[in-house]
Write a structure and sequence with these properties.
The chain is an alpha+beta fold. The chain has 13 helices and 18 strands. The strands form five sheets. Strands 9-8-7-10-11-18-12 form a seven-stranded mixed beta sheet, with helices on both faces. Strands 5-6-1-2-16 form a five-stranded antiparallel beta sheet. A two-stranded antiparallel ribbon has the order 3-4. Helix 2 runs antiparallel to helix 3. The longest helix is centred in the N-terminal third of the chain and has 22 residues.
């Protein structure tokens, strides 16, 4: 009986390793043999000396084009391997640590589930002053974005590079800016592509100019007209500062594709004759006066978006288009709304579970004079690690109950967007 079992084990091992006959009685072929060419199979049956001679004869019989093709494939494989081993900086990725001269954004959690954001220019001898303490810039320089550092008073600050949206909201401003939610809607309506030429009237603080500069890319062009000198200088300064910080914090260069012109667009009819525009964005008090000037430069079928503050201005614009018989048709009038949500754990109160939902109206906002450095105060969403830390630091523990999600507030847009389009003849 033992001999019979040993014989069965030996037969099964031969079958699993590829040796021995197949179940049908034919000799089993190994998996790698099916991928070999007939010449390679013959070479494996010959002695080493004869196999080498057969390989030399086969190589000599190949045509020069086949040999060149094989060499080209080998070189291409080497180039791909070299590209994979190249550092991330060569592909345009952001370098790791902060450097002196670039922008840094510090976020600090405050009471009532609010977040305080402050933006600063990094310098070796300066310091960031926050309500939670002072943090020297030398402690930030050399750190990777996303690090959490502690200020002198013990406050925890999250350091990272600001996005374009955050820079626009926190940069110095004179007039009211076009907010990013409205700018994104205008960009979708005008359908701006890389390489387009776009006219902007009303530079303001430079918010729209920055987003248009990124949308048209290095091959595109943005022409920005402004009638007030102080707004013109502020827009140029904000644009220049963003480009300088971008060049330090990124390997690629931000395109220098915005032409700021200090002039009333109503008096620029001669200048517009030599320009062909893919899109026009009017952000001014009296856009009716600019329509006759820009229509001659706008491409057939081009889009003109008008950014207005109230519906009364919209009515005046439509009335001017109708009475003057301008070749524009109003396609859409939009009001962009932005709704924020807060997700918070339920909190026990008097031995009963109550819902914790805070509205933005209940949050204390900094005075207007501090808006030159702060400008914004957003809601905060608790992450898992931050929630665990709050459990250990808080004297009143949370129960393990489901999260409560409700809309924090309705943030109504204070503008209506008009989207005229040139009528095709």
């Amino acid at each position: 009986m033992r001999a019979w079992r040993a014989l069965r084990r030996a037969a099964s091992s031969d079958l699993s390793s590829g040796h021995g006959p197949a179940p049908g009685g034919r000799p089993r072929r190994r998996a790698w043999e099916a991928s070999l060419s007939p010449l390679e199979r013959v070479r494996r049956l010959l002695p080493p000396e004869e196999a080498e001679a057969v390989g030399r004869c086969a190589a000599a019989s190949r045509s020069p084009s086949e040999r060149e093709k094989e060499m080209g494939m080998e070189m291409e494989a080497e180039e791909v391997a070299a590209d994979l081993q190249a550092p991330l900086e060569a592909t345009g990725a952001r370098p790791g640590p902060f450097r002196a001269g670039e922008l840094a954004l510090a976020e600090m959690r405050r009471k009532h589930n609010a977040t305080l954001k402050q933006m600063c220019w990094l310098a070796a001898g300066s310091a960031l002053t926050t309500p939670g303490g002072v943090l020297p810039h030398r402690d930030i320089i050399g750190q990777l974005p996303g690090q959490v550092l502690r200020a002198s008073a013990g406050a925890r600050l999250l350091l990272r590079r600001p996005s374009l949206e955050e820079y626009v909201l926190l940069m110095p401003r004179g007039p009211t800016i076009a907010y990013p939610k409205d700018i994104n809607a205008i960009l979708m309506m005008t359908d701006v592509h890389p390489g387009d030429t776009v006219l902007e009237t009303g530079s303001g603080s430079g918010a729209m100019s920055l987003f248009l500069s990124r949308a048209v890319g290095p091959r595109g062009r943005v022409i920005s007209y402004e009638v007030r000198e102080d707004h013109h200088n502020l827009a140029k300064k904000n644009y220049k500062n963003w480009r300088a910080a971008w060049e330090i914090g990124h390997t690629e260069e931000w395109p220098d594709n915005v032409d700021f012109i200090l002039k009333d667009i109503s008096a620029a009819a001669v200048d517009m004759k030599s320009v062909t525009l893919d899109a026009v964005i009017l952000d001014m008090l009296d856009p009716q006066s600019a329509l006759p000037v820009v229509r001659q430069s706008l491409k057939q079928g081009g889009v003109c978006a008008v950014y207005l503050a109230n519906i009364t201005q919209v009515v005046d614009l439509l009335d001017r288009i109708r009475t003057c018989k301008l070749p524009f048709v109003c396609e859409r009038i939009l009001e962009v709304t932005h709704r924020k949500w807060m997700v918070l754990p339920a909190k026990p109160k008097n031995c009963k579970t109550s819902e914790m939902v805070e509205n933005q109206e209940n949050i204390e906002e900094p005075p207007q004079k501090q808006y030159e450095e702060i400008h914004i105060q957003d809601q905060v969403v608790l992450k898992e690690n931050e929630y665990n830390e709050s459990l250990s630091d808080s004297a009143e523990p949370y129960w393990s109950v489901p999260y409560v999600a409700r809309p924090a507030c309705w943030q109504e847009a204070h503008s209506a967007t008009v989207h005229p389009k040139e009528v095709l003849n």
